[in-house]
Amino acid sequence: MANAQDHLEPGSTRIPIGRFNLMENRYLVNMRKYWMLYVMILPGIIYYLVFKYLPLAGSVIAFQDYQIFKGMLSSSWVGFANFKFIFTYEDFYLVLRNTATIALYQLVFGFPAPIILALLFNEVRLMLAKRVMQSLFYLPHFLSWVVVGGIVFELLSSQGVINMVRGWFGHETILFMQEQQYFRTIVVISGIWKDVGWGTIIYLAAIAGINPSLYEAAVMDGANRWKQTIHITLPTMFPTILVLFLLNIGNFLELGFDQIYNLLTPMTYSVGDIIETYVYRAGVLQGQYSVTTAIGLFQSVIGFMLLWIFNRMARKTEQGLW
Amino acid sequence: MRKTTGDQLFQFFNYAFLIAAAATMLLPLLQLLAVSFSSPVAADSKMVFLFPVEFTTASWSHILQNTGLWKSFGITVYITVAGTFLSMLFSVLTAYPLSHQQFLIRKPIMLGIIITMIFNAPMIPFFLTVRELGMMNSLWSLILPGAIGTFNMIIIRTFFSGIPKELDDSARIDGCNEAGILFRIYLPLSKPVMATVSLFYAVGYWNTFQRAVLFIRDPEKWPLQTKLRAYLTSPEELAAVNLVLGDYDFNTTTLKAATILFATIPIVLVYPYLQKYFVKGSMLGSLKE
């Protein structure tokens, strides 16, 4: 028999009681013994500090009159002046309204789409058909928004295939991409087209985890497929749906620069210009750094507040479930 | 069990809907392919549906002779290969200590990482940071600022956590240090997850767009997606010849179709082989915590 010492976890260095004095001793001993782990993680820590925390700290220029030649440290502080400015600024309301409207559409139509698709997939009994269809549905996820935007523009152009099909039925040609009334629909549909298949994966994983005996019992009780879906499949998916919903809400106003940027034309700015594309033009291109940082910060704060509110609500319903 | 008429009807409509929807995932690409092989007259008079009309390879041979396009292609291949390698190295080195209880500060560090997922820095301070680091117009700006994808790193960490720690102990007894354990035991054991995460990174680098828009002002250094975007917005540059005067067997419509596909084909070609890894990987991610 090995003695007790050998059974110790390698990490739990036992320090004899008599010499146990200070908290940091434990860390120092640990560091000396496993110094390589600390070396390994160094690049990662530097990465997060430089590219995540430094920009986060840099958000203070929203409270400054940031001058590029003075830098962050010697630019003058202006308090909330930049925020006051954006709230009197007409463009800001336009951009905010566009962002919120598109975000709401995406939540209402885009969010449930993969849930519904996963439920429909679940009813497919031919495994080969299911696999082939899934492969097709996942494909667009791997295309860039430049490519997808290009495809959308080509399909909807005056000589594109959509107008061609419209022509067969005697409808006149519509310049979809130039007309404001279609822009948001195009954003939502192209978003669903690109990511609906990919989005099903996580739900299908949740469905796969359901105990088959639940269905058997339901069949005994005379439940048909629809009833099984409503009373077994959906409730089991609910925690997954809730988590994804919360993650979605936290990024509510972050629609994704790539998609909008690649679908937008000056003709559709009034309905499609969102915070990210506006901040890019006014900030990066025109150099209004402080004002656009204030807008970005406002966006982050709204996102965090929504997450906080919905998370509280979710905690209540989750408890209500049990 | 006997199927009711309602069930059968549902099954019929479900298959019909899913097959139709699945077809729309591929049809746009096939239509563009048909356009890219059609004559300009046919393409512009709404005659091309899924098969080329007045077949010609003129558009393809024109864009394949475009040195600018190939240059961007080369840049994208470079950042995809170098970026994926660096990202994997950084991610693995970060994931390994975080998956070990011996690493006493792993909880605060994990928390610090999770916080960055919730609080995203606004675009402008991010832009200014990268610029202050002197990375403007450097290809490093396309790699380093996104070197670790937190989600990808967590996938690796989750997998590492599942590897029995007895293996560590026996390796340590055999005189292996931590780096040896990582590279000789963990990596060989996690080949599938390494493949999956590498693919996630590679696709991300291949499709890099926003960072290039932010940081690369010199068109000579544009990656493929940025170049493609420029050509799509001003296709005359893509033609680079006077289409009105000359008698060419292509026009901006057919050239754009070919260029979009040019940027897509590498992904579509590898996709069938890699698909199973993608799916496996995103399942792993869903298991986190």
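The CA atoms of residues 183 and 189 of chain B lie 10 Å apart.
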